[in-house]
């Protein structure tokens, strides 16, 4: 009976070296195909967040402009064209004319730029060239990301 235990069994299950190499190669190929799909998904998510942040800030700027044009925000700077002086004013709020202590806030906070991962946005005033990357400082007419990357269609994110 001890002689039977020392001989290897022919019906034992296991993988040979060739089978392990083939299985490892297949797994490596599948992993290599998954990485670009993951990168594309991350990029799409950042693009979605960028669109949302830009829309939120532009909507707040437009609401500020509309209320200032109606005279609801009291005195605005002469050369501001009734646009906010900076983004922080939209967060801190503006006193409503006619109400002693009432302030209107247009943003809860300045959103984070998902492309640069900072709170530093590019700003354009009404006096700036539409493709300008420097801010004249007169008012906040538009915002853009400072990222130099391009979208899948070739347009720079800073032009969104």
Overall description:
The structure is a single chain. The chain has three helices and four strands. With 160 residues, the chain is mainly alpha-helical. It has one domain (47-159). The strands form two sheets. A two-stranded antiparallel ribbon has the order 1-2. A two-stranded antiparallel sheet has the order 3-4.
Distance between the termini: 81 Å
**Structure annotation, total helices:** 3
Roughly how many Å is the radius of gyration? Answer: 30 Å
Mean pLDDT: 85
- Beta-strand segment tally: 4
Instruction: Tell me, briefly, the overall form.
Output: elongated
The helix/strand class is mainly alpha
Low-confidence stretches: none
Number of domains: 1
What topology, given as strand order, has the largest sheet? 1-2
Q: In this structure, how is the largest beta sheet organized? A: 2 strands, antiparallel
**Order of secondary-structure elements:** HHHEEEE
The percentage helix is 40-55%
Fold blueprint:
Blueprint: H1 2-6, H2 17-69, H3 87-92, E1 94-95, E2 103-104, E3 122-124, E4 142-144
């Amino acid at each position: 009976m001890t002689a039977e235990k020392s001989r290897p069994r022919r019906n034992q299950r296991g993988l040979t070296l060739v089978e392990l190499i083939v299985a490892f190669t297949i797994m490596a190929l599948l992993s290599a195909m998954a990485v670009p799909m993951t990168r594309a998904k991350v990029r799409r998510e950042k693009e979605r967040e960028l669109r949302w942040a830009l829309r939120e800030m532009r909507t707040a700027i437009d609401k500020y402009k509309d209320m200032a044009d109606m005279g609801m925000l009291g005195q605005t700077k002469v050369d501001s064209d009734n646009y906010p002086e900076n983004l922080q004013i939209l967060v801190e709020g503006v006193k409503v004319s006619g109400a002693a202590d009432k302030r209107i806030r247009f943003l809860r906070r300045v959103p984070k730029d998902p492309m640069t991962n900072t709170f530093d946005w590019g700003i354009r005033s009404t006096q700036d060239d539409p493709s300008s990357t420097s801010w004249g400082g007169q008012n906040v007419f538009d915002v853009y990301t400072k990222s130099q990357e391009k979208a899948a269609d070739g347009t720079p994110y800073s032009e969104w």
